[in-house]
Amino acid sequence: MKGILTGIGVGPGDPELVTLKAINVIKKTEVLFYPVTKIGSQSAALQIIEPWISAETRVIPLLSQMTSNPEERKAQRLLQSHQIAEVLETGKNAVMITLGDALLYSTYSYVMKTLQEMGYQVSTIPGISAPSAAAASLNLPLTEEDEGLLIWPGTESEEALIHQLERMTDNIALLKVSACREALYKWLKPRQDRICFSLASRLGSKEESLSQDIEILKDPSLPYMSVALLKVKKGKD
Amino acid sequence: MKGILTGIGVGPGDPELVTLKAINVIKKTEVLFYPVTKIGSQSAALQIIEPWISAETRVIPLLSQMTSNPEERKAQRLLQSHQIAEVLETGKNAVMITLGDALLYSTYSYVMKTLQEMGYQVSTIPGISAPSAAAASLNLPLTEEDEGLLIWPGTESEEALIHQLERMTDNIALLKVSACREALYKWLKPRQDRICFSLASRLGSKEESLSQDIEILKDPSLPYMSVALLKVKKGKD
């Protein structure tokens, strides 16, 4: 019988924001895959769950280089899937960990789909997402009453971002803000009386920082892992 | 010194989908508030964390009746806030638990804001949200590449729902689907070739059920706690 892959979201960075379910599966897995951007480099996801890994577990890096080239990305994901499939073929189960939630902008999503297409069984354990963690650190509701929430990647084109901002009616959680900070600043500056802005960077780490001042967007050293929460101001009821 | 309120999201229903942070705080709290819809009725949120409550903890219900009347809702929330403030005044810390994520459509959001306005300190621990849990149970990505995700409450007007559906480009996670199942069905039926539909009900409980057949929306007994994931089909790359 072939093994099963379990994808696990280990949360935004705080080692305490891992679920019991994640820990219980990680403790027992024979093989654990973790993402690295360079061979030999540290993995934030691995650090979070290190205390729960058994000495018997084989821990294997999956190279996940940043690249804007879709063909390169595709080739990389296929390679990752084959690395995992090799283990599943031996009948062993495996775990793949990912930062944040397992199915929100994660490499695991693609690996999961590829392995399913190859005929393998998968299982997923959700994790605390960056928007939920940012809202908690800021003590700010993501949604109230009948509002909606749009989660939007900061890595989309400036045009697409402005299009979404222009039609926002309630709340936007904007991920990877460093990638779009200048466009966001330009749009927000004249709308400060109408839109509440909050930013959380390096969530759950010792360097976590929170701000409600849009001028922070002018800082070129804004961390990549920053989440902005935008909320349309409403009249008091 | 006055006590602090910690709001805790205990996840969608599976007792294993609670975070370590939630458990560590719950174990030590002197006072724990939990939501009930009727005095004397069971609380799903309380059941999830029952194993972690110390014998010394005072466990207090907060009446949270369903009402569509905004004035009644406001009065109820004010009452809840005062109940909690009474404990904080004695210098004791307190915890308020809530299903799912702490700041996504939760009663805690309002109580938190009211207590802040009253001058109390609050702290929040995020939880696994219903969309993240639904995606994991279904093994379906919430977002891929540069897509966005709109989280939308099923309790809004049919008009507002259709407005959002009409302009959807990527993904929608629709909560409390039973409240809008007829309007959703009518809209989806002629668009089945263009929109992928998935539904998860009673997440994390023994009665959890999953479906990808839109005909399930015709069932008047569809559970209130159902999440629909809608995804615009895209061409293969």
TrEMBL record, chains A, B:
Listed InterPro entries: 4pyrrol_Mease, 4pyrrol_Methylase_sf, 4pyrrole_Mease_sub1, 4pyrrole_Mease_sub2, CobI/CbiL, CobI/CbiL/CobIJ_dom
Single GO MF descriptor: precorrin-2 C20-methyltransferase activity
Keyword Transmembrane helix in record: no
Every Tetrapyrrole methylase domain range: 5-209
Keywords attached to this entry: Cobalamin biosynthesis, Methyltransferase, S-adenosyl-L-methionine, Transferase
Transmembrane segment boundaries: none
Pathways per UniProt: Cofactor biosynthesis; adenosylcobalamin biosynthesis
Gene Ontology BP terms: cobalamin biosynthetic process; methylation
Family per similarity comment: Belongs to the precorrin methyltransferase family.
Name under which the protein is recorded: Precorrin-2 C20-methyltransferase /cobalt-factor II C20-methyltransferase
